[in-house]
Hints:
It is built from 6 helices and 6 strands. By secondary structure, it is α+β, with helices and mostly antiparallel strands.
Amino acid sequence: MIPAAGAEQYPALDFANSALALPGGQYLDLLGSPDAATRWLAEHDLAPADSGLRETCAAQLRALREQIRMLLAARVDGLPVPAGALEAVNDAMTRTPTASLLRWDPARGLHRESPHPVTRIVEHALAVLAADAADLVTGADAERLAACGSPPCNRYLLRTHARRHWCSTRCGDRARAARAYARRKGD
Ligand SMILES: [Zn+2]
């Protein structure tokens, strides 16, 4: 699956797009199981590939994803942002520090150390993704945020042209084919 335009720049955008509605009524959840969620986090440098997430971890990721999707939807449509979405993002961002802390010991001297033990990998990933989502919706790129206009696709993207509003050439081709079909039927 090729990332949507902008999703390589913003992991939160790729995260929001990890629940996919596919043509033919198919549905693909890239966080649908602990193994799938581990793979997704590892591919985004948010967890070691052998971190062995549990189902509760995958469920936490899916829950934040839903809230981030609501946040993006509200931003795209210019609607009030649901309080639950703000709360979920703020909670994920503040539950755990994301900066590597400064340490000193006689053997190593000054060094930076990740503040989260392995057991808190998911909290760290949630914090990073939530902070990235907050950056996305408040930064200069927020104006380019759009929902893919090629049904049934449910991905979000950053528009590269003013009029382009699909997430991939594949979705663009499908949208054009659907328009051509509608025109032929109209004749
Ligand atoms: Zn699309």
